[in-house]
Design brief:
With 124 residues, this protein is mostly helical. The protein contains six helices and no strands. Helix content is 74%, strand content 0%.
Length: 124
């Protein structure tokens, strides 16, 4: 039986599983290669980011929009990239968790994806 996301360990599991899937994805995996992505450094950042969003535990200090603007300069990000990212996120959450916080993870990811896509589209 699936449980809800209730603690940092759940978010860590979600993020590790998500990036395992993303990095091997045919459409968006290469973006991380181009960006010289460092998984060991990125995982703790993403865990703290999602801890703030989902558990109201605020340890993240940064601006994800700036990071994506920089990435967009290296490889233009488009709607297909964001749709695939969101699809993998939804599948990963749904495979592991069920409950109100998991539902919030899905809603928040949709919002984040749309906001980033809109802002990046204005730059292209």
């Amino acid at each position: 039986m699936k449980k809800d996301i209730t603690e940092k360990a759940d978010i860590l599991l979600l993020i590790e599983d998500f990036y395992t899937r993303v990095l091997s994805d045919e459409l968006i995996g290469n973006i991380f290669v181009v960006a010289n992505f460092n998984l060991e450094k990125h995982i703790p950042v993403m865990v703290s980011f999602w801890q703030g969003i989902l558990l109201n535990e605020h340890y993240y200090h940064g601006n994800p929009m700036i990071k994506h603007i920089e990435l967009n300069k290296l490889i233009p990000l488009n709607e297909d990239h964001f749709k695939r990212w969101l699809q993998i996120w939804k599948e990963t959450v749904d495979n592991r968790f069920k409950g109100p916080v998991a539902d919030n993870a899905l809603k928040r990811a949709e919002n984040i994806s749309q906001i980033m896509l809109n802002k990046l589209s204005q730059l292209n």
